[in-house]
Amino acid sequence: MPADYFPLKEKTRYEYKFTSSEFEGTAKIFIDILEVKKKAGKALAQARMIFELRDSHTTQYTVTRDAKWLTTTDGVITGGRREFPLPVKEGAKWTEAPDSCEVISLSDKVSIKAGKFAKCMKIVTMLAGGDAGKSVRYYAPGTGLVLEEYSGEDKTCELELVAVCAVPEDPKKNKK
Q1: Cβ neighbours of residue 113 under 8 Å, at least 6 residues apart?
Q2: What residues make up the domain containing 125?
Q3: Residue at 75 is within a domain
Q4: Residue 122 CA neighbour count, 13 Å, CB half
């Protein structure tokens, strides 16, 4: 069975630390996979992103996995994008105008606060063909996105996985 570089597991929370030249300090980002529906060779996940810095912002979005792509409709650094083509193959290339992307490796090692990850998929995105900078993303098998380093004309930022856990229960739901 091929490695799953973006598992869609219901009620899973990904906690990231996020730094950016657009603000001072370190933000906390929570990506919650709330619900996953499967039908006709497609998985559709309802996700929630919580951005905490001095205050908190929450957005809802979807993640879709079909036979050809894993796609998100929102994200921390760039909004929605085609994360990667399926099945995953080293050397796979695609364009999301004006950017060009390539799966550079399926064997990278990443060591971050959340742990050491082996056999990571490394994707390099050349922003505006390289004229506007680049982004490097690492996805660990069985975990998902563990690290993204973005260096563009307009900003530089880093998104690093801190922990993976269950989505906490909403205390408002249990009150009657």
Answers
A1: 17, 160, 161, 162
A2: 12-167
A3: yes
A4: 14
pTM for the model stands at 0.94
Structure token digits, residue 133: 């900078």
Q: Rounded to 5 degrees, what are φ and ψ at 42?
A: -135, 140
Q: What is the pLDDT of residues 8-48, one digit of tens each?
A: 999 999 999 999 999 999 999 999 999 999 999 999 999 99
The pLDDT tens digits of the residues spanning 56-103 come to 999 999 999 999 999 999 999 888 999 999 999 999 999 999 999 999
CATH number assigned to the domain comprising residue 120: 2.40.360.20
Burial (0-12, 13-18, 19+ Cβ within 10 Å), 129: exposed
